[in-house]
Amino acid sequence: QVQLVESGGGLVQPGGSLTLSCAANGTNLSLFVMGWYRQAPGKQRELVADIVSNGITRYADSMKGRFTISGDVTKNRVTLQLNDLQPEDTAVYYCAANRGIYWGQGTQVTVSS
After folding, report:
1. Could you tell me the strand order of the sheet in which 2-7 lies?
2. What is the per-residue pLDDT across 64-95, written as a single tens digit (0 to 9) for each?
3. Cα separation, 46 vs 23, whole angstroms
């Protein structure tokens, strides 16, 4: 069983920053990719970014340049740095492993003045 534990969400003003962290716990871990998705109210869940065990990263086009994913999949940890946050970034952010085989419980990010 794999458990993904997220931390770091919260309320931030427009232009602010947040750091989200995710750690995978469990037995027989065999992860090859970890990443973040988000789901805004009334919208479908979408990819934010992910990172493969060899360090290759992938970003949604709209989030390139503002968000940075880092970490070490082989150590079961990933971090998402969110910069220049805007109200449209308000969503529940979910950590995922192996492209959706495992999911975290989600952490709320709210961008509001």
Report:
1. 2-7, 18-26, 77-82, 67-72
2. 899 999 998 888 999 999 999 999 999 999 99
3. 20
Rounded CA separation 36/47 (Å): 6
pLDDT in tens, 3-46: 999 999 999 999 999 999 999 998 667 888 999 999 999 999 99
d(CA 37, CA 31): 17
Whether 62 has a pLDDT exceeding 90, the answer reads no
**Is pLDDT at 49 greater than 90 in this prediction?**
yes
Q: Is 93 exposed, middle or buried (0-12, 13-18, 19+ CB in 10 A)?
A: buried
- The terminus-to-terminus CA distance of the chain in angstroms comes to 40
Using a 10 angstrom Cβ sphere, with 0-12 exposed, 13-18 middle and 19 or more buried, the burial of residue 24 is buried
Residue 24 in 3-state DSSP? strand
3-state DSSP helix/strand/coil percent for the chain, to nearest 5?
Answer: 10, 55, 40
